[in-house]
Automatic annotation (TrEMBL):
Keyword hit for Phosphoprotein: yes
Entries under Gene3D superfamilies matching the protein: VC0802-like
Keyword set includes NAD: no
Binding partners and assembly: Forms homodimers and heterodimers with CASTOR2. Interacts with the GATOR2 complex which is composed of MIOS, SEC13, SEH1L, WDR24 and WDR59; the interaction is negatively regulated by arginine. Interacts with TM4SF5; the interaction is positively regulated by leucine and is negatively regulated by arginine.
A cellular component term, taken from the record's GO annotations: cytosol
Key words, A-Z: Cytoplasm, Phosphoprotein, Ubl conjugation
GO biological process, one term: negative regulation of TORC1 signaling
Pfam families membership: ACT_7 (PF13840), CASTOR1_ACT-like (PF21389)
Domain CASTOR ACT: from-to ranges: 11-78, 201-262
Protein name as it appears in the record: Cytosolic arginine sensor for mTORC1 subunit 1
Organism: Smithornis capensis
Length: 269
């Protein structure tokens, strides 16, 4: 419904959403545990088969977006480990690799992916949700934060290893469930009784991947972060955006995360 505009940049790919569930049910907890839970079984195999993904963690669960044209490769890659279903008219219908095998060629082994620089701003973030019926009560504040309160964008060189702060605010509304990521200072502007978070109320730190916009054709970017964190059993809340990828980790684990990622980069040189 959005009119064409010279101010709007649209990626040329159509994307499909993969939702990974356990034993046929969505995760029941409301603790943001994130992408590391599915890194080894989903993201890493797709990266090995040269399938590019976008990752979106929400307060309730995680979603993997793949390009529609990559669907045959996705199904062939994951069919051995997962029962795969597609949604048709509100019903879940089983999918087998035979359904999409026509014309599928197993890709050649991919070259080692580019290891992008990782930056860690000092900003502390909160991962929150809001009950849908209370959303109107904070609508004005949301509009102000989303459209009027941003500071001017800062140019950051690719060699910069650390930032003092970063402007980052994420709002998603998926099937009635709301997820918000905001910095701790912005959170103070909202009514505290309407923002819901985990019982521990933990704060998160961010690692941002990429010294320049990443594009959509490269694979292995999510795996670059997810695999070492999964090996260390560290949770991450992952958000791919049009220009960069972002992983939030519990504040007390940021030092270990940076060390792990630096070791991975050094070992790959």
């Amino acid at each position: 419904e959005l009119p064409p505009s010279e101010f709007m940049q649209v990626a040329d790919s159509t994307w499909l959403v993969l939702s990974v569930v356990s034993n046929g049910r969505e995760p029941s907890g409301c603790q943001a545990t994130g992408v590391t839970k599915i890194a080894r079984s989903v993201i890493a195999p797709l990266a090995e088969h040269r399938v590019s993904v976008l990752m979106l963690s929400t307060y309730q669960t995680d979603f993997i977006l793949v390009r529609e044209r990559d669907l045959p490769a996705v199904i062939h890659t994951l069919a051995g480990e997962f029962d795969i279903y597609k949604e048709e008219s509100g019903e879940c219908v089983p999918v087998t690799s035979d359904d999409v095998s026509n014309g599928f060629l197993k890709p050649k082994p991919a070259a080692s992916p580019t290891l992008h620089p990782v930056q860690s701003p000092q900003t502390r973030f909160c991962v929150l949700t809001v009950a849908p019926d209370t959303l109107p009560a904070i609508a004005t504040m949301l509009i102000d934060v989303l459209f009027y309160s941003h500071s001017p964008l800062r140019e950051v060189s690719a060699s910069s290893q650390d930032l003092d702060s970063i402007t980052f605010f994420s709002f998603s509304l998926i099937e009635g469930y709301i997820s918000i990521v905001m910095d701790a200072e912005t959170q103070k502007r909202f009514p505290s009784d309407l923002l819901l978070t985990s019982s521990t109320g933990e704060l998160w730190r961010m690692v941002r991947i990429g010294g320049q916009p990443l594009g959509f054709d490269e694979c292995g970017i999510v795996a670059q972060i997810a695999e070492p964190l999964a090996a260390a059993d560290i949770s991450a809340y992952y958000i791919s955006t049009f220009n960069f990828d972002h992983a939030l980790v519990p504040e007390e684990g940021i030092t270990e995360v940076i060390q792990l990622l630096q070791q991975r980069q050094e070992s790959s040189r």
